[in-house]
Design a protein that fits this description.
heterodimer, A: 404 residues, 15 helices, 54% helix, B: 333 residues, alpha/beta, Rossmann fold, 8-stranded mixed beta sheet, 14 helices
């Protein structure tokens, strides 16, 4: 058969594959107005403005009539102050100064990771047993510093807020900021990592002493325990073993909770916004994240590109970087008068800006080529930092105002 | 001949670079390494967060757990090597170097102990990562034929996690009261707290990163970690003088006169062009005011600081050498 494979090429009729669907711009106001959307998760790598974007979205939603709670992880001090959440008490507080003409409300809270973890333990175990766990040195270390605890607890808190919202009707929209992780993917992976650890063979190894000597007899276990004792010391093993046996009955509960949160993230009422800055690393991270969300069947609403260099008036870019630079060179001479200095400086700034705009457009185009079906919105960089409700309103307005 | 520049961090062998996310830690670490190599010494660049930041910056394939030449020095300059450290490989190497575990090592992996130790056991991961950096800085006979470096630059976790990352000792103390991991953590801490180490912070002239820098420095000083310098990154160009900025901020620009000046150098101005230039200029002047106030806060810290400009095209490979040259002028050698 393979000999006669060679054939004249078939005439091509129509496109070989369907054209990818090109998404229009991300329409944030439609998203916020959609009452079916109950949870918006803002994620992205560190330093891209996730917290500001989530707060701006929450404020805009509230001023358009929704009852909103925003869960922030690590807001700038002045922003936290202006929202009235600088005190860490791990429960939502009303934000003062919003425009409630449309009947909306805004509450905000800052995540206290350790306290959230403690509360989960307390809700799952008898007071006596809970105390035993809370006092264990291994638990203290895990709950305050395990690399994924913050991510895990952010998701745990989201689950609690959602349950509360469903039961009491206190909120109809939850906006979640995600922790400033090494990688934007951490918060998706942390719950899974923790529950797989709890399920793992290593746990069984640690539980073995509590469950009878028979299992210890196998050569593998003996060798491993000896090696472990050598490396981390007997004391740590004892603490861990005590923790594990005290925690044993809670594991099922933790696993079930992690699973529920994961399902909540996949549910129809959830929308993910991936936040990025127009920088190579942040855009690459955003692309990874978009792919990952689609693999996990998580509903992606769009990509928000923060702090772009775009001009305020979208259609006025008649002056190219090269023209501006050439004119600048002529003006940049010794003995230039005040207006020559001013004009020269402005041209130079404009040239830099146009260059940045071009570079950012290239980055965004590259993303768009690979992900044509992801709606996008850009937020032009503001001249000053955002640390009050007016600033948040301005960010929200820029986000909502996307050219068609 | 220009006056010789005084060396900013004499006697420092290990440079640790931290900073808030998005402030350009990786770029600063890479240009710092190039600047340090310029006098002929070999420099090792380490990353510990699995981001492959150096591979991307230097445009080479992803780096393995192995020291790879990443920038060959030209002329008298030394070479820059890079190493991506991951906790799993570091643990396996450590076990191999010190315990020759053989079958037990494999068993550890099978029982999920390696995964446990590197992802879940608090602090252990950090000891493994910093432990490998220590090993590169203090090569001993267990690692035969290994290259010795004149300087090591570590692209460290962000400011929010740095004290925890480096000060692993205290945290482990409660957990591992004895045993090799504790001993390992202690030796690493000794190097990190010594005058041979400097911890630098990168920032940009914006409120939150600067606040984080200030808090970070105070925390390091409190915990006895050696603070190096502040690298102020992405500084805006200084093309507009005080007078020009005052005109813009006070809305005192005479549009006609500006338009005439622009026309004189061949720009066909329209009211829209003039308005765009003025509005860009005003935004810039506002930002500069903010930058100045943030710069003043950094100056109060009494810590050496160096400024690196914002490169309008973004930092590509060649840009690193421009930044390195600026660092050398500032006393990095």
């Amino acid at each position: 058969m393979s000999r006669s494979r060679k054939r004249a090429p078939q005439p091509r009729v129509g496109a070989l594959q369907p054209e990818p669907r090109h998404a229009g711009p991300l329409n944030v106001d439609n998203l916020l107005a959609d009452r079916k959307v109950r949870i918006i998760v803002c994620c992205g790598s560190g330093g891209v403005g996730k917290t500001t974007t989530s707060a701006a979205l929450a404020l805009r939603a509230a001023e358009q009539g929704r009852k909103v709670v925003v869960l922030t992880i690590d807001p700038a001090r002045r922003l936290a102050q202006s929202m009235g959440i600088e005190a860490l008490d791990n429960s939502p507080r009303p934000v003062q100064g919003i425009n409630d003409a449309a009947g909306g409300e805004l509450e905000a809270m800052m995540l206290d990771m350790k306290r959230t973890f403690d509360e989960v333990v307390q809700s799952q175990a008898s007071p006596e047993k809970a105390q035993q766990i809370l006092d264990n040195p291994f638990y203290i270390a895990v709950s305050s510093s395990f690399a994924g605890t913050q991510e895990y607890m952010a998701m745990e808190k989201l689950g609690q807020l959602d349950k509360d919202a469903q039961k009491s009707g206190r909120w109809d929209l939850i906006v979640v900021d995600t922790p400033p992780s090494r990688s934007a993917l951490d918060f998706l992976d942390a719950p899974e990592r923790l529950s797989s650890f709890l399920d793992g063979r290593f746990m069984r190894l640690l539980l073995a002493p509590a469950k009878g000597p028979a299992r210890l007899m196998t050569a593998g276990f003996g060798m491993v325990t000896r090696a472990l004792t050598t490396i981390i010391g007997a004391q740590v093993l004892q603490d861990m073993s005590a923790f594990v046996s005290a925690f044993d009955t809670l594991f099922g509960g933790f696993r079930a909770r992690a699973q529920r949160t994961f399902e909540l993230l996949q549910a129809d009422g959830t929308a993910f916004l991936v936040i990025a800055a127009p920088e190579r690393d942040a855009m690459r991270e955003a692309a990874y994240f978009v792919d990952r969300l689609s693999q996990e069947d998580m509903p992606l609403a769009g990509l928000v590109i923060n702090r772009t260099s775009d001009l305020a008036e979208a259609d006025t870019a008649p002056l190219s970087a090269n023209t501006a630079m050439a004119a600048y060179e002529k003006l940049h001479q010794p003995g230039a008068d005040s207006y020559e200095k001013l004009a020269g400086g402005l041209l130079r700034l404009h040239a830099d800006k146009m260059q940045a705009v071009t570079r950012e457009h290239d980055l965004i185009d590259r993303f768009a080529t690979a992900h044509p079906d992801v709606p996008r919105a850009k937020i032009r960089a503001l001249a000053t930092d955002v640390h009050d409700l007016d600033g948040l309103r301005q960010v929200g307005a820029l986000l909502a105002d996307q050219p068609e | 001949m220009p006056a010789p520049v005084t060396q900013l961090f004499p006697g420092v062998q290990l440079h640790i670079v931290t900073g808030k996310g998005g402030t350009g830690k990786t770029t600063v670490a890479a240009s710092l390494a190039i600047a340090l190599a310029a006098d002929g010494g070999d420099v090792l660049l380490c990353e510990v967060e699995g981001r492959q930041g150096f591979a991307q910056l230097f445009d080479v394939p992803p780096l393995p757990y192995e020291e790879r030449l990443i920038a060959r020095g030209t002329g008298d300059a030394g070479d820059v090597y890079a190493l991506a450290i991951d906790a799993e490989s570091a643990l396996m190497e450590y076990l191999d170097m010190y315990y020759r575990l053989g079958r037990a090592g494999k068993a550890l992996d099978r029982f999920g102990v390696i995964e446990f130790a590197t992802t879940i056991a608090p602090g252990v991961r950090d000891v493994l990562l910093t432990g490998k950096v220590y090993e590169a800085a203090r090569r001993n006979r267990r690692n035969k034929d290994a290259r010795e470096y004149d300087a090591i630059v570590l692209d460290a976790p962000p400011t929010g996690r740095i004290a925890q990352f480096l000060n692993v000792n205290n945290e482990l103390a409660g957990l591992a009261k004895m045993g090799p991991i504790k001993a390992q953590a202690d030796t690493v801490t000794e190097l990190i707290r010594s005058p041979q180490c400097a911890i630098h912070l990168t920032t940009v002239l914006e409120e939150m990163p600067v606040q984080e820098t200030i808090d970070g420095i105070h925390e390091m000083q409190r915990t006895g970690l050696p603070v190096g310098g502040v690298f102020i990154n992405l500084v805006r160009p200084q093309d507009l003088g005080d007078n020009e900025r005052a005109l813009l901020l006070n809305d005192k620009v005479d549009n006609q006169q500006l338009s005439k000046t622009l026309d004189s150098v061949g720009i066909a101005t329209t009211p829209a062009i003039v308005a765009t230039l003025i509005s860009e200029g005003r935004d810039h002047a506002e930002r500069r005011e903010l930058e100045d106030s943030q710069r003043a806060l950094i100056a109060e810290l009494d810590v050496p600081s160096l400024e690196l400009p914002r490169l309008p095209g973004g930092v590509e490979y060649e840009g690193l050498y421009d930044l390195a040259a600026i660092l050398r002028e500032g006393g990095i050698r």
